[in-house]
Design a protein that fits this description.
- With about 160 residues, the chain is α/β, with parallel strands linked by helices.
- The protein has one domain: Vaccinia Virus protein VP39 (Rossmann fold, 3-Layer(aba) Sandwich).
- The chain contains 3 helices and 7 strands, in the order βαβββαβαββ.
- The chain is globular.
- It starts with 14 loop residues before the first strand and ends in an 8-residue tail after the last strand.
């Protein structure tokens, strides 16, 4: 699980959006990683099991609860440096809408990381959805979390939607 923090390098003021059906050790680890850079962790909680998150010193924690998988989350445009979406995309009734919202909230040249339990969401379908949503360089990252598939892609500056 510690390999999840190897997927990004936080800078001062770094902002992570964690969209999840299960706030857990990954969320805690992301918050802990941000405490060294005065970062912000925004957690969007879709229905599921959610552990209590502790505020880390020097990390701003924002929580948002979404009542069901037909509703979108709220986030400001170009406000996040990386988005983790965990076990939500394949459950949502409008996954394209979620990807569009993620694209909009990411700053330029930043990453989306999709984490799902192995076998719950076809990786080729994920990669095709990412490409359709104008994310580039989509790939499967091996060995990050046991029992999970990790897919990453990048929002490129002046590509596709150009936001």
């Amino acid at each position: 699980m510690d390999k999840i923090v190897e997927l990004f390098t936080p800078q001062p003021g770094y902002k992570i959006l964690d969209i999840t059906a299960h706030t857990d050790e990954v969320s805690r680890l992301l918050g802990q990683e941000l405490s060294d850079v005065d970062g912000r962790l925004s957690v969007v909680q879709y229905p599921g099991e959610h552990a209590v998150l502790n505020n880390h010193e020097r990390t701003t924690l924002q929580l948002q609860k979404v009542p069901d998988y037909s509703k979108p989350f709220r986030a400001l445009p170009r406000d996040n440096d990386i988005v983790f979406i965990r076990d939500v995309l394949h459950r949502h009734t409008q996954p394209e809408r979620i990807l569009k919202a993620i694209y909009t909230t990411l700053t330029n040249a930043t990453n989306i990381v999709i984490i799902s339990k192995t076998g719950t969401f076809d990786t080729q379908t994920q990669l095709a959805m990412l490409e359709h949503a104008e994310f580039r360089a989509g790939n499967v990252v091996e060995g990050v979390m046991d029992g999970c598939t990790v897919v990453m892609a990048k929002k490129m500056h002046m590509w596709g939607n150009g936001l």
